[in-house]
Amino acid sequence: MNQPAAEPSATLRVAVDAAYPSVRAGLRAMLAANPAFELAGDTPDVTVADLEEGVSMEEWPAGPAVLLATSPGEFATTLISGDVPRAYLLKEATAAELAAAVNAVSQGLVVFDPAVAALVANRPHEAPLSLEGARLSDREIEVLRHVAAGLPNKGIARELSISEHTVKFHVGTILGKLGAASRTEAVTLAVRGGILPL
Question: Which of 44, 101, 153, 181 has the lowest tally of Cβ within 10 angstroms?
Answer without folding.
Answer: 181
